[in-house]
Design goal:
- The protein is globular.
- The protein has 10 helices and no strands.
- Helix 3 (52-82) packs antiparallel against helix 5 and helix 9 packs antiparallel against helix 10.
- The mean pLDDT is 80.
- The protein has 256 residues and is mainly alpha-helical.
Length: 256
């Protein structure tokens, strides 16, 4: 119970901290709407206008992924600039338990993107919210958001090692949502991208939401999303321990 309470309080603290930043609030409010608008117009111009709801869901997943990616990297960079990264690494808890609330908070903020794209599409473009599995969709959305928050731990461990994490984040955003099939089908990509896509939790999360929207077997895809994210969480926990030991030995944590 103490661990759960610590995770909840840490996530709540980070949400409050993010709410004080006009830039972050503006980004979370505006970017999903822009992405949803572009996706709707792209699919309206295609031969499959009936897939507008899937386009809105895919655009929402893009927002969730961007929130986790930039939130995890931005939080690490922010802690480094404020001089508190060393204090976090010295906390009397495992590093994974210190950074997990940050990535979960960013996943929770990203859930707004999914909701905003659906509301925006319904109100402005009249997209009917006819989900094939209306009860499975919110479950799939919740599990996907939590899974991507866990995936953020692996990203956070990499961002600690990268001094210019912002550039690294920019390089990861679009390739991952392309490989995950959030808007474009994976089958349209080169064959060599298939194994990479299969190893990403974003791929299975996007597929679960798409199957809940258009019809299909939601639970196997959702189980794979959660399973891969659990593996990433374990790898991230090990990586954080390794990074901490290396940084302590070299006394370079703030400049890693």
């Amino acid at each position: 119970m103490s661990t759960l309470r610590m995770l909840f309080m840490g996530m709540l603290f980070h949400l409050k901290h993010a709410s004080r930043s006009p830039f972050e609030i503006g980004s979370f409010v505006v970017v999903p709407i822009v992405q949803a608008t572009l996706a709707v117009y792209l699919f309206r111009a295609s031969d499959e206008p009936q897939k507008l709801l899937q386009a809105a869901v895919g655009a929402g997943m893009m927002g969730v992924w961007s929130s986790v990616l930039f939130g995890a990297g931005g939080a690490i960079q922010s802690q480094r600039w404020q001089g508190t990264l060393e204090m976090l690494m010295l906390a009397p808890r495992r590093p994974v338990m210190v950074f997990l609330p940050i990535t979960l908070a960013n996943g929770a903020m990203g859930s707004y993107a999914l909701l905003a794209t659906l509301v925006w599409g319904r109100v402005l473009y009249g997209i009917p919210l006819d989900f094939a599995h209306p009860f499975a969709f919110p479950v799939a959305a919740l599990v996907t958001v939590l899974s991507l928050g866990a995936f953020g731990i692996l990203l956070a461990s990499l961002f600690i090692l990268v001094r210019h994490a912002n550039a690294f984040m920019n390089a990861l955003e679009y390739p991952i949502w392309l490989l995950s099939g959030m808007l474009l089908p994976i089958a349209s990509l080169p064959a060599w991208t298939g194994p990479i896509a299969a190893a990403l939790p974003t791929t299975w999360g996007a597929r679960a939401l798409r199957e809940a929207t258009a019809g299909g077997k939601v639970w196997p895809s959702l189980a794979l999303c959660a399973g891969i994210s659990a593996v990433c969480l374990g790898l991230g926990a090990l990586a954080l321990v390794h990074v901490e030991r290396q940084a302590r030995a070299a006394a370079t944590l703030a400049l890693a």
